[in-house]
Amino acid sequence: MAEDKKKKSTQAKTTSSKTTKSKKSFKKKKVKKFVTRAIVHVMATYNNTIITFCDPDGNVIAQSSAGRCGFAGPKKATPYAAGVIVKSLMDTVHDYGVKEVDVRLKGV
């Protein structure tokens, strides 16, 4: 019986030491695409303005809206808000090397 108790205590110690060890996980480094031509989708409604930059294949590069830029209520649908959205997106898209843009409008 004493031997059984010793075995159980040593087993408990080894299992607890195994659970405390954890593997280190490494994140894969994200590679930015270099896109020279982009498609800009502008959706303007009575309540909000949403602008999306895509590559020619349709993959989204960057997206923003008036609400994300800090506008609330009826101020989200103003032309000034649209200008602020474009300015914030251009700072993001500048790193991708966009030189040409096709614009597609949708809304009122």
Could you explain how this protein is built, in words?
- This protein is an alpha+beta fold and 108 residues long.
- The chain has helices spanning 2-20, 79-93, and strands spanning 37-44, 49-54, 60-65, 100-107.
- The chain has two helices and four strands, in the order H-E-E-E-H-E.
- A four-stranded mixed sheet has the order 3-2-1-4, with helices on one face.
- The mean pLDDT is 83.
Low-pLDDT windows of residues = none
| Overall geometric form | extended
Rg for CA atoms: 27 Å
Helix count, DSSP H or I runs of 4 or more residues: 2
Strand/helix succession: HEEEHE
What is the first-to-last residue Cα distance? 84 Å
Biggest pleated sheet: 4 strands, mixed
Set out the fold topology.
Elements: H1 2-20, E1 37-44, E2 49-54, E3 60-65, H2 79-93, E4 100-107
Parallel strand pairs: 1-4
Antiparallel strand pairs: 1-2, 2-3
Core attributes:
single chain; 108 residues; alpha+beta; 4-stranded mixed beta sheet; 4 strands
Q: What's a concise summary of this model?
A:
With 108 residues, this protein is an alpha+beta fold. It has two helices and four strands; from the N terminus they run αβββαβ.
